[in-house]
Design a protein that fits this description.
Radius of gyration: 21 Å
Strand order of the largest sheet: 4-12-11-10-7-5-6
Strand content: 15-25%
Order of helices and strands: HEEEHHHEHEHEHEEEHEEEHHEEHEEEH
Shape: globular
């Protein structure tokens, strides 16, 4: 019985898998069971920030595995403390709560926002998010997601979420005033919504409105964070600092971890017993994440921006492409051909890509070799033009 057949028989059928069985890889190249090589422009949907089997990450994780793989949050461990310190020092934020995923990080942010309003004596419980957003697959974060498609099978969803239009500050302000919101939560680049970057003026206007009305401004950096957009976190491209931001995916480098990062305004909102996670702050996951965060420096970020400029400029000139969107190495490509056909042709020619709605989506490793990236872009161009 093959692995594919075993998977089909025993794994819950929630993923429409490609007909591809991956067995190993190194850097930005992976191999299937027949040893065919593929250039990986997916990174596990933005997770393996430094590629497959990154040596420094492997060393950090292995060392921690042989020292202390887990203990409860009733005790101190160095990886958890040092990772929190590194994140706060690089962002000028105050405190971090560690969880296991982006959805859990967003759940924590929701709790922070509601308790902050309660502590201040405000009659506010609603969280405002944007239409076309995506914030996770738990029931609360599904409700926070501004796309009906994700709601329809799981009603009734938790209440307390309202939606406004992206890049429309009048819509945001009107919705906020009508619904007594305690927080506004946005993705600076809407990933699952089609890799669409928010306008800078719009983000700054939300920031100003939230600050003037003591509404927490929360940025969901689950997919955009950890160097993905050419800055450490995407909000840094907009010249602002949120009250709370969340992150996951690329933070762990391949192990499950999420983080809710809180600024000075709300740093004391959650106290003993207000929140918790059995695996949150796991020493092994934190050791791996620390090896990632410590290496996202100005040189790497400059390299990300250089590679981004190459992809945007090269593919924008392709006859089979209508538009290139996104930021940094979080790239959406509107193709004239059906995106499923492009993905299939790319895979046949040794390049792995993703989709986001009707767009091709690229999330290569931050340190992908430039020659490998160029080779992959040539395959994409050919798939779009032929």
């Amino acid at each position: 019985m093959t692995i594919k057949n075993i998977d089909k028989q025993y794994v819950l059928n929630t993923y429409n898998r490609f007909d591809l069985y991956l067995v190993e890889g190194k850097g930005s190249v992976v191999k299937d069971e027949n040893k065919k090589e593929y250039i990986d422009l997916t990174t596990g949907i933005g997770v393996t920030a430094f590629g497959i089997a990154d040596e420094k990450w492997v060393e950090a994780v292995t060392n921690q595995l042989t020292t202390l793989q887990h203990t409860s949050n009733l005790y101190y461990t160095s990886p958890c403390a040092l990772l929190a310190k590194a994140i706060c020092e690089k962002t000028d934020m105050s405190k971090v709560f560690f969880s296991n995923s982006g959805a859990e990080a967003n759940e924590c942010a929701i709790k922070v926002a509601r308790k902050y309003a309660m502590d201040k004596g405000y009659d506010r419980v609603n969280i405002l998010t944007l239409n076309n957003s995506f914030h996770g697959r738990t029931l609360a974060t599904l409700s926070a997601t501004g796309q009906d498609h994700y709601h329809e099978l799981f009603n009734p969803l938790p209440t307390g979420f309202v939606y406004a239009d992206a890049n429309d500050i009048d819509s945001v302000i009107a919705t906020a005033k009508e619904n007594n919101v305690c927080a506004i939560m946005v993705e600076c680049v809407q990933g699952e919504g089609g890799v669409i970057a928010l306008n800078k003026d719009f983000v700054n206007a939300i920031y100003d409105y939230a600050k003037a009305n003591d509404i927490l401004f929360v940025v969901d950096e689950v997919q955009t964070g950890n160097g993905r957009t050419g800055q450490l976190y995407a909000y840094m491209n907009y010249g602002i600092k949120p009250d709370v931001f969340t992150t996951a995916k690329g933070l762990g480098g391949g192990l499950p971890i999420g983080a809710c990062v809180v600024g000075e305004k709300a740093q004391n909102t959650l106290g003993f017993g207000d929140h918790g996670s059995t695996y949150g702050g796991n020493p092994v996951a934190c050791a791996g994440a620390l090896s990632v965060v410590e290496r996202i420096d100005d040189k790497l970020l400059q390299d990300v921006r250089k590679k981004s400029e190459y992809v945007f400029s090269t593919l924008s000139e392709c006859e089979g492409i209508e538009a290139v969107t996104g930021m940094g190495l979080m790239i959406g490509i509107k193709t004239k051909k059906p995106v499923s056909d492009v993905i299939k042709e790319c895979m046949e020619n040794g390049v792995l890509c993703l989709s986001a709605k009707d767009k091709l989506r690229l999330l290569p490793a931050l340190n992908i070799d430039f020659e490998i990236l160029k080779k992959a872009v040539d395959v994409i161009k050919s798939a779009c033009e032929n």
